[in-house]
Amino acid sequence: MSNKKVPMRKCVGCQEMKNKKEMIRVIRTPEDEFLLDTTGKKNGRGAYLCPTEACLSLAIKSKGLERSFKQAIPAEVYDNLEKEMSSLESR
What we know:
The chain is of the alpha+beta class and about 90 residues long. Helices cover about 35% and strands about 20% of the residues.
């Protein structure tokens, strides 16, 4: 009997490969909005982050999200992501 393949994704912060369900997807919608996608099913170009503020700060420092989306990301988007990430960590 064969085992199901577990989808793996690379964190744009720490560069580690992890299970897709353990990570948080950051998406760019067709309207050029950046959102956290906790369901993993929203439409848009996605990049994955570990659900820690440390990985988010690494992604900001190394410009991992900017590389993934191939565009500059405004500072207020990072502020919104930090707020949403801290609310997820506190749960």
